[in-house]
Amino acid sequence: MTAKDKTPKGGKELGFDERLEKLEALVSELEDGGLDLESAIGRYQDGISLLKDCHGTLGQYKKRIEELSVEAGETMSQMADPDFEA
Hints:
By secondary structure, the chain is mainly alpha-helical. The chain has one domain (3-80): Helix Hairpins. It contains three helices and no strands. The chain is rod-shaped.
């Protein structure tokens, strides 16, 4: 992905939702079919980069949710222990 896809003019990196919206806009633009071949290929390449980035972010979120679930399970099992004192 190019730097402009991740960081807009304000200097702040785009969040997941913004990247997903940008990807959806690219798909819509490609589906409309009004682009010349070179522009379409460039948009397609940008879309693939955004897709990879979004997929990676989702993987990180999934891993974090799994970690939190393990922590919650450990906490709940401690609380079920009759010797547990809060």
